[in-house]
Design a protein that fits this description.
By secondary structure, the protein is α/β, with parallel strands linked by helices. It has two domains: 2-74, no CATH class; 84-240, Zincin-like (2-Layer Sandwich). The protein is 41% helix and 25% strand. It contains six helices and eleven strands. β5 (84-87) and β6 form a beta hairpin. α2 runs parallel beside α6, α3 (122-151) packs across α4 and α4 (190-202) crosses α6. Bound molecules: zinc ion (ZN). Zinc ion binds next to loops.
Length: 241
């Protein structure tokens, strides 16, 4: 069954799938590409489904908008003024200042990223941004890791965080307790970053994905599944860009 959600001037089509697992609630998901999918308990009436989806309309439209923005992010980047780039889940428009002879630098300003570069062409701006993202990633990840670690009884001292560009992973934890993170994670929303950090810190106590590992995650971040789902849906886009 295909239905349409209306919210203000916006509309979104969705497909309803019957799910044997669900008893009363709907399960609403915005899949990669901004596709809205609604799972409903077997036998749920159309009006009940419509009402349930309508209740979450704002959340749904926000997510679809976000995916659309991320999708544009995956297109070839031009590194020109006005182009939006992500930092901790927020979009920032580039403002480019060409200053011959200047060293490349980037500043986070209200609503934007101000890039100063000697040439100001795409390569120049890309290199400036790359270095800025890496520096930001390193300091932010270390700061958040230290804060999280302080709440986790099994972590004696916060482990150092290393950056490594990976094609398929956000992070990893070595048997010796070193944490490696993908610098692209700095583009994801904060709760997604927190989830990855906590996931790796839990590996310091449990080196595998055992039930004990998941119970640690549950205890310290009850909503980690939502963060993981969101991050998984962004992976394709943020990891290739
Ligand atoms: Zn893991």
């Amino acid at each position: 069954m295909r239905l349409t959600l209306r919210y203000g001037a916006k509309t979104a089509e969705y497909e309803v799938r019957e799910s044997a697992r669900l008893r009363t609630k709907l399960r609403i998901q915005v899949e990669p590409g901004g596709v809205l999918v609604v799972e409903a308990p077997a036998g749920a009436s159309e009006s009940k489904i419509r009402a349930g989806v309508q209740k979450r309309a704002r959340w749904i439209m926000d997510h679809i908008d976000r995916f659309e923005a991320y999708r544009r992010h995956a297109l070839p980047r031009e590194y020109c003024g006005g182009e939006a780039h992500f930092y901790l889940g927020r979009r920032h428009k580039l403002k480019i200042i060409v200053q011959p002879g200047a060293a490349r630098s980037v500043r986070l300003i209200a609503g934007g990223l101000e890039v100063t570069a000697p040439l100001g062409d795409a390569d120049d701006v890309r290199l400036a941004l790359q270095r800025w993202y890496r520096n930001r990633a390193l300091s932010y990840f270390n700061l958040r890791t230290a804060r999280l670690a302080a709440e986790l009884p099994w972590v004696e001292a916060p482990p150092p965080v290393r950056l490594l560009k990976m094609k398929r992973y956000w992070g990893s934890c070595s048997p010796h307790g070193a944490i490696t993170l993908n610098p692209a994670l700095i583009k994801a929303p904060i709760h997604c970053v927190e989830y990855v950090l906590l996931h790796e810190l839990c590996h310091l106590a449990e080196h595998n994905h055992s039930p004990r590992f998941y119970s640690l995650l549950d205890r310290h971040m009850p909503k980690w599944r939502e963060a993981k789902e969101e991050l998984d849906s962004l992976s394709e886009i943020l990891l290739v860009a």
